[in-house]
Amino acid sequence: MQAASDRPSEWLALIARWAVLWRVPGLEQRLTVSFSPRLRRSLGRCVPAKRIVRLNVRLLHATAALLEEVLCHEVAHVAVHELHVTRCRPHGPEWAALMRAAGFEPRVRARLSHDAQSVVRPARADRPLYEHRCPVCQAVRMARRPVPQWRCAACLAARLDGRLLIAKHTGAPR
Q1: pTM for this one?
Q2: Considering only Cβ atoms within 10 Å of each terminal Cβ, which end of the chain, N or C, has fewer?
Q3: DSSP bridge pairs for 97
Q4: Residues 87 and 15 reside in one and the same domain
Q5: Which structural domain range is residue 26 located in?
Q6: What CA–CA distance (Å, rounded) separates 139 from 153?
């Protein structure tokens, strides 16, 4: 098995190939790719407007296939930004089409195994849910993260504050 860190010249060639495939030739020349030890919870980050891609340093010890998938994922964000003047969702259909064209399944969430050799998909039931409950009318909304800016529409219409109480749950929604 060849480690990902043994192939830096091939990454540039891969990006160039994807750029031609995605009709954004020369993207590899305008792109900055770096590895960051500060990335702890994600495999990669991207700032499309600045054409910056940062990858988790643990990917240097992962398989070449895993690094290529993560690199393609992040570079596709930059390509979507260059192709579409209007705002697109980060993992919307435009991005998914580029991933499929490059030969990858468009995955949004994944994490490295302890040996950094493979991706482990988090189980949905293991991820917490957050209940947003109106203390006045008891309306409930569930989300995968706390959203403090949400308000109860019915209470706002009645000229009340509309603030929701947020409680963390694990497992399925109640």
Answers
A1: 0.63
A2: N
A3: none
A4: yes
A5: 4-120
A6: 9
